[in-house]
Amino acid sequence: xxxxxxxDWKPSAPLARGNAVGQIxxxxxxxxxTGRIARGTKLPSEKQLADAYGVSGATVREALRxxxxxELVEVRHGSGTYVTAQAxxxxxxSLQAVIQIERMGVGEVLDVLGVLNAHAAxxxxxxxxxxxxxxxxxxxxxxxxxxxxxxxxxxxxRFLGCLARASGxxxxxxxxxxxxxxxxRLARDRSGGMLEKKIAGRLSKxxxxxxxxxxxxxxxxxxxxxxxxxxxxxxxxxxLPGIAGS
Length: 246
Fold this sequence. Notes:
Blueprint: H1 20-33, H2 46-53, H3 57-69, E1 73-76, E2 80-83, H4 87-101, H5 106-127, H6 130-144, H7 153-165, H8 170-190, H9 197-200, H10 204-215, H11 219-238
Antiparallel strand pairs: 1-2
Helix pairs in contact: 1-3, 2-3, 4-8, 5-8, 5-10, 5-11, 6-7, 6-10, 7-8, 10-11
């Protein structure tokens, strides 16, 4: 495990007058997001950071609290502070905020997911590796083999995640993954805390059509199949108790 002081790390620039906490927070955040401070790296101690920036320990502590709240770092008691920035977690937090601030309804969120899923399937038909297509098929087989009466939430999210990653576009995959997970968990919660096989099983044929089109390397058919699948799944979600008007 690399520690920044071992790598001769230093602040990007001396602090200007005013708001030292904000400047330290911005500097560390930028270095994490640009990769200068790599994921998994252990940050210097509060004292070392305070000495490097020329501020008090309390100032550094406040800046680190901001990084923790942003889920860029994690404090492990007795060990130190580590960079844990995960793209999906950062995106999840940002999109959740947008949905809440804009008071977006379920229908609006599902509309966006439909467009993204279709594009992901279209790209997957062109650019997915054979291994990715195999993983997609395997995830779908596992989903279909869940016994009746069992919760299929995790298996369905896994399948949709494989579909998103097969697009070969990390941003598209992250967006699809977040919105698909939101849709599935919403369906689960509105179904009494468990998404049963009988509900998800209604769409098994549509899911297989998507995978078959991707396996056939037919982007147009993959797009059409993904749109058809999404339209039916959206109807299922919107018909659940408590969804209308939300």
